[in-house]
Amino acid sequence: MKNTLKNVFHSPRFVVGFTIFMVILLTVLIYPYFVTRDPLLGLGKGFLEPGTYVSVYDTNTAGTYRVELPEANMNRMESSVPMEDRVTIIEFLTAKGVDVSHLTTANGDVPELVSLWQENYDEADVKKSKYPGFTTQAKRKALARMDARLSGDSATAKMTVTVGDGDDAATTTVNDTDYVKVNEVANSITLPLGTDNFGRDTLTELVKATGISLLIGLIAGTVATLLGLIVGLLAGYVGGILDDILMFIANLFTVIPGFVLLILIYYSVGQAARGVTTCALVIGFTSWVWTARSVRSQVISLRNRDHVNLSKLSGHSLPRIVVTDILPYIASYVVMAFILQVSSGILAEAQLSLLGLGPKTTDVPTLGLMMNWAKLFGAYTSSNAWWAYFPVILVIALISFSLNLMNTGLDQVFNPTLRD
Amino acid sequence: MTKGLKKYLKKKVFWFIITFIAAVILNFILPRLMPGDPVNAIVGKNVSAGASAEQVQQQVEFYKHQFGLDKNIFGQFLDFVKNAANGTFGVSYSQYPRTVSDIIGAGIWWTIALQLPAILVGWILGNLLGAVAAYKRGIWDKVFMPLSLFFSAVPAFGAAVILMVIFAVNLKIAPVNGAYDPGMIPAFNAKFIGSVIAHYQLPFWSIVLISIGGQAVGMRSMSIYELNADYVKYARFLGIKDGKIVRYVFRNAMLPQVTGLAMSIGSMVGGALVAETIFSYPGLGMAMYTAITQSDYPVISATTLIITVMVLLAAFLLDIIYAFIDPRVKAAQFD
């Protein structure tokens, strides 16, 4: 046993898979101690992009510091000169014959573009010279408006803010060199993965959902492996008519689509009971078949071995023969089947929830439910909110990747012919 | 034909027929256990607000008679078998008076045209990659195998969604959903075919990409297993050319892969559910999904019956073919 474990942990594939899995598991376990907020708490309305959100209201009451960033003006310009203005500037300068071939509409070129504009633009000159493309009055007026906008931006800005209302109102002036310290502002929140359609913090929700989905996989995997093991042992070892009947049932489970059974079981337990545990049990109940088949075929090859026959002759009971003479030979296989069942249980939940057949719950998220919400609320298409579904897909892929890696690692340890 | 083989085939045919009958019965019963009265739903949709209780009752009776729901469960089952035998599968509840065969006929060609080429292409590419990785080894194997393991771990809907977001929503070089431009009327002209091909790409590649990874991983480990087998060493001692040995090795390694191919073709309709619902592709998977959400029993029964028959046939044919081509199966089954 100790030796086997040592071998297992010497397999690089297993170790990599195990590490990824443990990182995910530990995150799920530790994260709630740092973020104690309810993972399903709505923080806003609809999708918010990832980033740090600082309360505008509270920045006015926080202490201000004087900071003079050399590139402050440039940054301001970059975020305030719209793309169409940049295009118009380039068009105008080209029409006037200024060499702008080294400039683009990229952020870095904006300051030079603006200064070239201010050097070259003159309203009267435009009217007189009739540059190609800018001959109509409407175009000229558009240029004049843009000029007014741009000159407003480049001046040293001051802003007046009114705090309070009515008679108590007091105005403060905000200079462009006034800064607040983010952690001194009373209210700010960092949302590394933004919020989902309900305004929930996606990262916190994702961690919780990963935990629930792992639990679903664990329950489904345990049920499927136990059922498969029992059926396979009975069918393989006892054989005869029992074998025929059990394999007949297994065949029925293969040919009747699993989700039809799932829907039925869901409805028969009632909507209220269609929670996470039920969902997990049902997935396990519909996916034991291939474990049963493989266990059966292995047991068939074992049951006529000499040591089994010897046990039979010694008058040992059936449970004892199974436990001492058969199980040890298929143990490694059962462990690998269990790992695969866990991974396919997680996938099954995700797939079913995506079709709206998953757990009906508003208390906890699952990875599948998050995908379902993202689909229902247009995260793929209209909102283009990648943070609401891409991390979910990635987590599902990482979980099954790590479990599959562990499995191939184990396979190489237990089947020496597969070793590299 | 040997006596053992005859006995084996007889047994297989016997269990095939028993399973088939049980599956037909289950396919009939299971959807009918679902709650929700379809007749009430239709009547509720069709009856005007001011209708009297008597009129509503009349409507209910009319539809119950139309669907044969006024008969007892055995009568309904006989109807079901009769309708299945003559190929109409009865009338759809949710799209009355359309027949189920009409709904299925409209969907099945889209599903076959999408799934069959995708499964085949994914299978061929995956097996080629896996075989090359097993034979060449080295850097090719080291980089490629973890990658295909990772890709095989990406769930089918994940791949579909990512492809859709990249190519349809952001790059806008492919349509978001459907099988053809909704403004077009299906016709055999260049414009319509062009639209069908454009809509075909994303669902097709999403299925291919997913199957490549899994097939490659399976093929690689089977090939390595075979390459280390005793007969290969013996053949090398005998001085048989490498090319010839490799042909034998891959032919043996292919056997389990052929099983996988047959089973995925058999379960094509069920496998179509995910890709078809994400891309709203009007195939059988989509028809089944709508039927489930509207508790349209005849459609659910018919689609699950198609799945059942296809899977059963695939498994049966595999059993028969294996008995002839694989001596190992022959030996194991006849004891």
How would you describe the overall organization of this protein?
- The complex is a heterodimer of chains A (420) and B (335).
- Chain A has 420 residues and is mostly helical.
- Chain A has 2 domains: 2-44 and 197-418, MetI-like (MetI-like fold, Orthogonal Bundle); 56-186, no CATH class.
- In chain A, 64% of the residues lie in helices and 6% in strands.
- Chain A has 17 helices and 6 strands.
- Chain A has helices spanning 2-10, 12-34, 56-59, 72-80, 83-96, 110-120, 123-129, 137-154, 202-238, 240-255, 258-269, 276-286, 289-302, 306-313, 318-354, 367-376, 386-414; strands at residues 51-54, 65-66, 158-163, 170-175, 178-179, 188-191.
- Chain A has a two-stranded antiparallel ribbon.
- The mean pLDDT of chain A is 83.
- Chain B is mainly α.
- Chain B has 2 domains: 3-86, no CATH class; 104-332, Orthogonal Bundle (MetI-like fold), CATH 1.10.3720.
- Helix content of chain B is 79%, strand content 0%.
- Chain B contains 14 helices and no strands.
- Chain B has helices at residues 3-32, 38-46, 53-67, 73-86, 100-136, 138-153, 156-170, 190-227, 230-237, 242-266, 268-278, 284-293, 297-325, 327-334.
- In chain B, α5 packs antiparallel against α6.
- In chain B, 38% of the residues are buried.
